[in-house]
Amino acid sequence: MPHLTALRASAVQLSVPVISALAGVVVLAEPLSLRLAIASVAVLGGIALVLAARERAR
Question: CA-CA distance, 47 to 24, in Å (whole number)?
Fold first, then answer.
């Protein structure tokens, strides 16, 4: 994947735990707790902030 930058690759890697946890909720019928929801929003929000800051710096 030559078009994938290191920043985007790291963002995808950091989102894997959130995707896995949400897959557990959907596939395995695990409970969706408030703690999981807040943590997921925090992680994805942090990734979005980093990507947005990088785009703005260009």
Answer: 21
CA distance 51 to 54: 5
pLDDT tens digits for 19-36?
999 999 999 999 999 999
- Does residue 51 form part of some domain? yes
Distance CA(47)–CA(10), nearest Å, equals 9
For 30-56, what is each residue's pLDDT tens digit?
Answer: 999 999 999 999 999 999 998 888 777
49 domain residue, yes or no: yes
* Total number of domains constituting the chain: 1
